[in-house]
Specification:
By secondary structure, this protein is of the alpha/beta class. Helices cover 39% and strands 16% of the residues. Helix 1 packs across helix 13 and helix 7 crosses helix 12.
């Protein structure tokens, strides 16, 4: 079997990580994978799985990208994939239009994955037009049903994103050498009650909510310190400065450490006392929260989206009414004395092998 994945690029990000994990798992099981994107820092990792990468500018939001439709049609006819897997909106438009130029007998089956809550409009509707549409959570499935009623319910398949249980499990611990370097790099974290907020620096992640949370905890004599883990992408510098100004106004600027992007997130999650999810808009899944829960680390998050689904299953007491910073602060105050232990080990369908097998089953169904 041969699968061609279309996505905008291979820089850091959730979609890119899922495609990498799919390539690892599928190639290991004898499935040929071809990844088409504009390239990026993750290309070597993709190729190390045994997949091939073909560089094409198919993800830019520009009418000029439509010039790639004919080239993509030729590529599909040359490669002859059994499955065309679309992971993002612009590549989905390119892929769908390309397939219309190919004789029906030669077209691959089309699978699209809803990795996020896109704005609801005709542009986003392309993601609901695959032969099968993958929703990465139950709430994402409901989002598709509510907003794209033309999509047959039978074509929507829930396949959650996953964690590698061999790596993310309660027995995992950072090495002494790693911890020494961590506290050498960030000495301000020693003997603190550390609250990790992982994710790229965007409005979606809710970093400003750390201000009132830290203020409350500090007023109670708790040495709380936030650790914001994620890159500030080009164009988001002004937002980060806005958030920092808010922390300064709240008097907690010295209680926040910004680490930038880290490739050792498992160690960081273990080193911190609690992982937070503060998104005001629901996340489609919430991969880093599942990783923290898999490591046996407590997670406190707003009770919606994919994170709410995870907490309902693994740590219900970590659910907080959306946007209620006071309730969040009071929960963290309680956990300062006694931190809970999530359900472990992570069960199906959240394990990596479950996700890979579910994709293979879906692809095989479409080949029949």
């Amino acid at each position: 079997m041969k699968v061609m994945h279309l996505l905008p690029s291979l820089s850091s990000g959730g979609v890119e990580q899922v495609v990498l994990e799919l390539c690892e798992g599928l190639c290991a099981r004898g499935v040929e994978n071809v990844v088409v994107s504009a390239g990026g820092s993750m290309v070597p990792a993709i190729e190390a799985t045994g997949a091939r990468h073909i560089t094409r500018p198919i993800g830019k939001k520009s009418l000029l990208t439509l010039l790639q439709v004919g080239k993509t049609a030729r590529l599909i006819r040359e490669e002859k994939p059994d499955i065309l897997h679309l992971h993002s909106r612009v590549p989905a438009w390119v892929g769908q239009l390309a397939c219309k130029r190919i004789p029906a007998a030669e077209r691959p089956a089309i699978v699209s994955s809803f990795h996020g809550f896109h704005s609801v409009n005709a542009y986003s509707a392309i993601m609901a037009k695959g032969d099968r549409v993958i929703a990465v959570s139950r709430c994402m499935r409901q989002h598709i049903l509510d907003n794209y009623p033309a999509t047959p319910e039978s074509s929507i398949v829930v396949i959650p994103n996953s964690v590698d249980a061999a790596r993310f499990n309660p027995s995992y611990k950072p090495t002494p050498e790693w911890l020494d370097k961590w506290y050498t790099d960030y000495p301000e974290l020693k003997s603190k009650y550390t609250l990790c907020l992982p994710g790229r620096i965007t409005r979606l992640k809710g970093a400003p909510h750390l201000g009132p949370i830290l203020s409350y905890l500090r007023s109670k004599g708790i040495p709380a310190h936030a650790v914001v883990v994620g890159e500030t992408k080009k164009g988001k510098e002004a937002y980060r400065e806005e958030v920092q100004a808010g922390f300064a106004a709240a008097g907690v600027a010295d209680c926040v450490t910004w680490t930038g992007h880290r490739r050792d997130l498992a160690d960081v999650l273990c080193a911190c006392d609690v992982t937070l999810s503060l998104t005001l808009q629901p996340e489609s899944f919430g991969k880093t929260t599942l990783e923290a829960l898999s490591l046996g680390r407590p997670v406190a998050g707003y009770e919606h989206g994919g994170v709410g689904e995870q907490l309902q299953l693994f740590l219900p007491e970590g659910m907080v009414p959306t946007g209620d910073t006071q309730a969040m602060a009071e929960l963290l105050e309680k956990w300062y004395s006694t931190r809970p232990v999530p359900l472990a080990p992570i069960p199906a369908p959240y394990r990596r092998e479950d996700m890979i097998q579910a994709h293979i089953d879906l692809y095989e169904e479409l080949r029949k």
